[in-house]
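Team,

Forwarding the record for the chain on the shared tracking sheet. I've put the sequence and predicted structure together so nobody has to dig through attachments.
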Amino acid sequence: MKQYLCIDAGTTKLKAGLVDEAGNLTAMTHKTLITERPQPGYCEMDMNGLWDDLCQLLLHLREMSGARWNQLAAIGVSGQGEGAWLLDEHRQPVGKAILWNDNRSDTIDPETWNRAMEVCRKNHLTPLCKGSYLAILHWMKRKEPDHYQRIRHILYCKDWINLHLTGSLQTDFTDASTTAFNIFKKEYVWDIFDVLELREMKKALPIPYPSNRCVAVTNVETEALLGIPHGTPVAAGALDVAATAVGLGVMSAGEKGSILGTSLANLLVLDEAQVKAESFSGGSVLCHVAPGTYLRQMSSLNGTQVLDWCQKEIADGLSFSKMETMARSVPAGADGIVFLPYLFGERAPFQSSKVCAGFFGLQATHEKRHMVRAVYESLAFVLHDCCRHMPPTRGVRQMAGGAARSDFLCGVISDVTGEIICRSPQQELGLMGLYRILSNSEPPAFHETTRFTPNRENQAVYLRQFEVFKELQNSFFTLKKS
């Protein structure tokens, strides 16, 4: 039976699995990735280290798979988006990858930033943000000119992996559409490089293709190193959120979902007419995998890493299940405590590297359990804040990501948003999305989906609490101006 090798390189987890032609995940392994924060606002990853980690995973997967390993029909890779994965003339890394959630790029003056944003608006580009390679390159040209002069190729995370597998350089439409790419014409817009004085980088970009297009085959080096038969087809692949959306079945106009991962990615599928009819503020509109469809995306920087911080700094290292037991002992609204979760700045529904986190309403009668609940509720508030900037739609919200396994968090999100939340029983939705891209199979029909419906009493509490959340959020910008 045919087997599809699916690889998902996220920000915190690296996964690899085999899926047979019937859609069964027959083997899977994963590894926690290391991100480095050498200075406040920085976030980097060792590119060669990522490849070494993947080789270890694939060798382990090969051992697990036995004879199935020799039945590979195709390979698909998804990865974290944006950032700057830069190569020199020898196709070797120019330093470490600077990731999508890095905030160092502060060299663009307001006038230039506004001119660049105008180019984005006129040409259907994703708005400029600090985690895009354009902003990073602008910073590097001024702060690290020796590194800048060495750059010959600009890739995305998954493309770096595909390069190792095939020796070929390319990307796909979903990743390309995150930066400097007209989503309708499917081509780069060079005017923005001129505005940002990055003209010499126009030749460094890879050619984009549809996600399911076989763009290369594995080389002899990959066969010798990993036992993957030489000539195995490799698809262009996809941005991780797009692959997960496919795994969820969020494929047609009007369908929506959220991914509770390192970031809080909120997605809504639109057709071309809907995109052209709307005037969007914040977030982005990306190419989706299926032709003629687009992903309206609002992704907050503050996702599960906020819960990780809470676990370490407030909950004394307790397991997440015990943290949730603490939180459940407190009524909705955390007895008046509101938490702003902006530990890592923010990019949606607003952009700011200076916004910060904090508790409001703390009194002597409050305990750690109240603070833990307020942290969980803050993620629901952020998600709701993002979704309010999307076109209104009916229907359920499909939920994915590591934190979606939490009944407590899914319930709070349902109460805050007033939406029915559906959690798929299918595990590893990113890998399953890649399988569906590779095999061109139909979207899944989940019959055992867990549903969370709003508690109207809790919703009334949260509506009042959300107003306080927004007042606190807005007060930060008032303080900043003063």
